[in-house]
Amino acid sequence: MPKTLIEPFRIKSIEPIRMTTRAERERLLEEARLNVFKLRAEDVLIDWLTDSGTGAMSAHQWAAIMEGDESYAGARSFFRLEKVIQDITGMPHFVPTHQGRAAEKVLFTAVCKKGDLVPNNCHFDTTRGNLEYLGVEAVDLVVPEGLQPATIAPFKGNIDLDRVEAVLQKEGARIPFGMLTVTNNTGGGQPVSMANIRAYAALLRKYGKPFIMDVCRFAENAMFIKMRESGYENTSVRDIAREMFSYADGATMSAKKDGMVNIGGFIVLRSDEWLDEVRSDLIMMEGFPTYGGMAGRDLEALAVGLQEGLDEDYLRYRLRTAEYLGEKLEAAGVGFVKPTGGHAVYIDARTVLPDMPVQHYPAWALCNALYLEGGIRGVEIGSVMFGKRLGDGTETYHSMELVRLAFPRRMYTQSHFDYAAEVIAEVKQKAAGIRGVKITKQPRFLRHFTCECAWV
Q1: Mean per-residue pLDDT of the chain
Q2: Which of the four pLDDT bands, split at 50, 70 and 90, describes residue 388?
Q3: What is the pLDDT of residues 171-189, one digit of tens each?
Q4: How far apart are CA 80 and CA 407, in angstroms?
Q5: Are 212 and 251 in contact (CB under 8 A)?
Q6: pLDDT category of residue 435 using cuts at 50, 70 and 90
Q7: 234/116 Cα distance (integer angstroms)
């Protein structure tokens, strides 16, 4: 077979994108208060802000939409999706929500109380935000190599089992459950090994704690296990996913990732212990238990998308796409989290802006530079997203300064990636002229979405 790994699909419909000039982008970014979240999508050339709900649906998914049953209660679309989810996860109780953060909000409200503590490899932004909003401490316990962008290891998303046990011993009374995010989004889209999942589940059982997984990219994680973990090379991705789920007591999912849809999410539970409270909160926050914030047509699209997301030809192409851009950045001398993850490439801003002080938010500054230079929108995974302004006016800072370029599924072609690599290389050449920022206005939680900035 040829070495070139082609897209395992044909393009059936297109959407035009608008070309902008450097002068236009300078004005637009100023109007957006130096926050790329505030840009209009039509003013972005390549939009890699997120892979969440931004991908292209298949012809089969669009056809399934026409089957949507919009009945308020007991719609057949719910039962069709429930069967698919039960088959993949092995869990009997399925609770639909409109997206992942809603699943987190419903579950955490039902189960957590102020003063609790939840360990995880790394909580992503909305997971941490939902916990902290309830007064729960979110503790990140990823393995040390997970915080070292240049270190190459096959499973840098693993949770540090020794540190977890220390927390369980010391703080067990405060822990309602343990979490694990697969793949680990905060740490570069890095996978978690089956051995680590199994061992973490056993550790939580030892201390009588339920195990909840954040599984928005479970199919990509399963593919990494197939490719990297001994003993799984001849196991299907579907069976690997089923084994992953078999160790958990429940899961939350933003289906806008590996569910291959534009909206949707869910909670699954193995036991009915929390089910009544979860469903009560769902009705208050989302909707009736058989639609939970989703239209019937979206339930149908997700039932198809979950199956398509487990296709191994697609997953092989998906992971190779990130690897391909990583090779281009390596050739340009741009540092990034290695090895590349499944859904994104995470540029290490410190390799591009080594002299910029963290107080000037180098990853945020690099995000702005990518938009100004080539119309590319990424997202900062650094001290704006994960730092805080304390009551006395001082700041806390994140351990890494990353720019995530997250790829919508089945949307961009190889030429888009080649263009992006050229832009990133050009930005590195002009790094001396990149300006840092200061935050002039921010909310209490999840400040990166809406904060306003000015040039330093």
Answers
A1: 96
A2: confident
A3: 999 999 999 999 999 999 9
A4: 29
A5: yes
A6: very high
A7: 41
CATH number at residue 207: 3.40.640.10
Adjacent-strand bridge partners of 439: 453
- Model pLDDT for residues 99-156, shown as the tens digit of each residue: 999 999 999 999 999 999 999 999 998 999 999 999 999 999 999 999 999 999 999 9
Residues 6+ apart with CB under 8 A from 183: 157, 189, 190, 191, 192, 217, 220, 221, 224, 341, 342, 343
- Give the pLDDT band (50/70/90) at residue 1: low
Give the max Cα distance, the chain. 62
Domain assignment present for 5: no
Predicted confidence (pLDDT) per residue in 310-331, tens digit: 999 999 999 999 999 999 999 9
Q: How many folded domains does the chain comprise?
A: 2
Single out the residue in 291, 308, 325 at which a domain terminates: 308
Same domain, 366 and 444: yes
Mean pLDDT of 271-287: 97
pLDDT for the residue 2: 64
Return left, alpha or beta for 401; rule: phi > 0 is left, psi -120 to 50 is alpha, else beta: beta
CATH code of 315's domain: 3.90.1150.10
> Taking Cα atoms as reference points, which of 203, 154, 159 lies closest to residue 184?
159
